[in-house]
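Box 3.1. Reading complex inputs
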Amino acid sequence: EAQVTQNPRYLITVTGKKLTVTCSQNMNHEYMSWYRQDPGLGLRQIYYSMNVEVTDKGDVPEGYKVSRKEKRNFPLILESPSPNQTSLYFCASSLYSAGENIQYFGAGTRLSVL
Amino acid sequence: GNSVTQMEGPVTLSEEAFLTINCTYTATGYPSLFWYVQYPGEGLQLLLKATKADDKGSNKGFEATYRKETTSFHLEKGSVQVSDSAVYFCALRINKFYFGSGTKLNVKP
């Protein structure tokens, strides 16, 4: 079954404690992306990657890091989480970066930073 | 720049009512347009799409027409059901995706 898998689904942590949210897709997609969803603000892109070892900043990259060492994985790293990073996070992937190709989403990770 | 503006919610309708959720966009090129739906506790799923002017996307009774002259992609459904209650996102794609802020739809029996 084609899917984007994020882990964990729920996470409560404290300020400053490094964490990683994993994302994996089994569709051999080149393009992967991370979003955060906040009430009234919709989806905002954090980082995206057009292929292995190619990453770029989205609209709200501050406080986040990503890596793309393998095509299937695109982890999101919070080196020193802060309460303003409390949010719902989504990973997504698609076949190409442009055109009509559909973006597939993971089920989401709800993060609370205390 | 590129952006998407959609009507604020929530939108509350009775079952079998007609639905319109407005979406307008600005784009520096020729985008593809999408509607995504997010059911409670889930990720976003593609609802429908259109890739060029005058194209009509349709799925599950929902429709949207790519109107280049008015830069719009309004979502419509003739008769909503309780199961349509969700958050709807309009989006465009030029190199990367740009999403609207989402419109929550509540359908009452």
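In summary: Chain B touches chain A at residues 32, 34, 36, 42-46, 49, 51, 89, 93-97, 99-102 (CB under 8 Å).
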